[in-house]
Amino acid sequence: MSFFKKHITIFCGSGGVGKTTISAATAIIESQKNKKVFALTIDPAQRLASILGLKNSSKSSKVENLKVSMLNVKKDLTDLVKFYCHYPCNQESILHNKIFNSFLESVSGAEEYIAWGKLFKILETEDCKFVFVDTAPSNYALSFFSSPERLLQILEPSRLLKLIRPFYKQYKTNTFSPQTKAGTILNRIIKSILGFELINEVSHLAVSLDTMFEDFRERVIQAHSTLKDPHSTSIIVVTSPHFHSLFEANLIIKTLIDNNLPLKGIIFNRISNYHIDQASSNTILQPLADRIQPNIEKDNFLNYYLTLQEKEENEYHLIRKFKNQLPQNLLYIEVPSILWNRESLSTASDLLALKPYLDKLSTLWSHCEQ
Amino acid sequence: MKLRFVCGKGGVGKTLITSALAEIYSRKEKTLIISLNQPELISKYLDCPVPSNEPFEITDNLWVVHIDSQKCLNDFIKNFLKVGLVSKWIIDHPLYPFISATAPGLKEFLMLDRIMDMFFSPPVTRWDHIIVDTPATGHALNLFSITHGLKAAIKKGPLRKRILRIEETFKNKKLTKIILVTVPDYQPIEEAITMFDKINDKLNMHLSCILINMFPPKPPNLLLHTRSKKTLLSTINNFFRNIYDPKLKMKLSKIIEENVIFYKNSQILVKSLIAHVTNIPCYKIPYFNADSEYGLLTQLVKFFMDTHIENVLL
To answer: From edge to edge, which strands make up the β-sheet containing B31-35?
Structure first.
């Protein structure tokens, strides 16, 4: 099996397609088979969160064999710094560093990096065989996936110091102050924009990271190569029969293929379940009109049926068109839209209604059963 | 001059709705669509070239532009630092993307600043109506709330003036409104309620209305008024009494049963939304069928015109 002796399944897709629900359902289904499962989720809805035992984030669920964790940016980043950095004084210095803190607050970037960091930590520390990851619906998730080098480059201490070196004639360890005129001006400009002395903060960060960086780098590279390895990882794209989700799914699939990432399957969620093809439809339509009991509601009823039929046809064709332009060796799963009365979604076993559809996924990791 | 932000969770139809509204506005006024999202989708809906960083007129009075936050930052550095070589060195440095990611709210501020520049263009080039397609809910809210933090950090200078310009414009009900889009499903409605609360409590902005998109078609009254699932099923089976193929009969019954339940759930969700968002008008937009993105837009435009919704949204 893989280096970490785990199989990882990652669900990607645009917003609103049902990734989180499907990821949670798959995790529950596998845990029912007496396998040790870990589910990492990004932002589940209230109802789903309480089913998984997540009401107060990062709590273990009550489903047997299943451990669940929800992403909490501040808490998880603190955990990660403590996980990779062995010296408490450096941990504190990093966590209080203004750059680190503004990184947390920035709209784009932090959440995705921390999610990956959390996944890497799970791979190293958790005693489980299967990990299911629900990703955020953005392309950052994938841009990091394709190469950790960018993040590693950013954090490499010697590079951090190189940024500021041209502005210094000389510097003493741990005490950085601009020695050149350009350095002074730059520092002042940056301070007025960002509100803190960037150069100072960068240098302190570099020093704090220095002790942990090599080890961190090695472990990130190991974890990342596991994610790229089709033997240990499966990526599933989730989509729904709407133009915008299919459109984004196309972009995601293209990114995955271009970067040689282990795309294994596509899940079409929210499909109208009972497709009646055009031919059958035509043969029954007029006779149907005749055969329905005549009453005042007849026309309304027929019109309603026709509307639904049209919707179903349309979605069916959208999906077919999309599917035809995809590589043929992928797993295709269709999950119907209304499986249960949504009001009744109150326990983990309610999600088991998805089992007949999602069970096929387990063929992707059957080689890991030992 | 009007500025409209179309906000909502991912996948609810913001881009389509933005495009349709803009198409209608452009019939009477010079209109600009600003995309803060991926620009390719708009080009599909409007059947036009992919929007670039410069406003481009796609048909009479209808313009589109894409604002890329990274490019905004690059341009800002170039203009602010003026010294070409230094700014080039900064932008090419491998650390630059990280630094730009960490500047608290800088990118977002620059995007809003660019929107303001376009809104307050000189009269010759000015647009009467600007409508913005925002990123998914969380990001849009962050976008609106950065002026608060920036105002505290930057106390004087030209940057402060520009921050205030954003704040004053957003506060002004006559100029700026938010249109919130959702779909009749649990999580989207939850998020819409959260967003409504945030807009009221934290942001100093005005919500024009809530659009509930992809609303399912209404079943005939006879099916709608059944009190139990058992009655529903028997009513449906009654209609199909003369169909003898059991498989076909089951399929037909199932399609109808599930959609009636879906409709009922949707109604309940919308009721809870309306109860919460007192005083804000809510409109249902039906689910449309089309075999192309452009076809979808055409139907939505027709719907808005037929129901005169766009008058309310104005």
So the answer is: B56-59, B62-66, B31-35, B129-133, B2-8, B176-182, B207-215, B282-286
- A229-278, pLDDT tens digit by residue? 999 999 999 998 888 888 889 888 988 888 888 999 999 988 876 666 66
Eight-state DSSP code of residue A175: B
Contact status of A97 with chain B (Cβ, < 8 Å): no
Among the partner residues A16, A103, A293, nearest to B9 by beta-carbon distance? A16
Q: Does A308 touch chain B (CB under 8 A)?
A: yes
Cβ-based neighbours of B179, under 8 Å, separated by 6 or more: B4, B5, B6, B7, B17, B21, B207, B208, B209, B210, B211, B313
Query: Secondary structure of chain B: what % helix, strand, coil (to 5)?
Result: 55, 15, 30
Q: Name A239's bridge partners.
A: A268
The Cβ-side half-sphere exposure at A338, using a 13 Å CA radius, reads: 20
0.90 exceeded by the pTM?
no
A278 touches chain B (CB under 8 A): no
What is the rounded distance in angstroms from the CA atom of residue B303 to the CA atom of residue B287?
Answer: 11
**Considering only CB atoms, which chain A residues are within 8 Å of B249?**
none
**And the tokens for B202?**
């934290």
What residues of B are in contact with residue A342 (Cβ under 8 Å)? 186, 265
Banded model confidence at residue B67, pLDDT cuts 50, 70, 90: very high
The answer, yes or no, to whether ipTM is higher than 0.85 is: no
Q: Which residues of A touch B158 (CB under 8 A)?
A: none
How many Å separate Cα A325 from the centre of its chain? 24
In chain A, the residue whose alpha carbon lies closest to the alpha carbon of B288 is A311
DSSP A277: -
How do B31-35 and B56-59 pair as beta strands?
Answer: unpaired
Neighbours of B289 (CB within 10 A): 16
What span, in angstroms and rounded, lies between the C-alpha atoms of B211 and B307?
A: 13
Q: Please, are residues A16 and B188 in contact by the beta-carbon 8 Å criterion?
A: yes
Structure tokens given for A282: 């035509």
Please list the residues that pair with B5 across neighbouring strands.
B132, B178
Question: E strand or H helix at A342, and its extent?
Answer: none
Segment among A151-160, B108-117, B140-149 with least mean pLDDT: A151-160
Within chain A, strands assigned E span 7-12, 37-41, 66-70, 130-134, 233-239, 263-271, 331-336
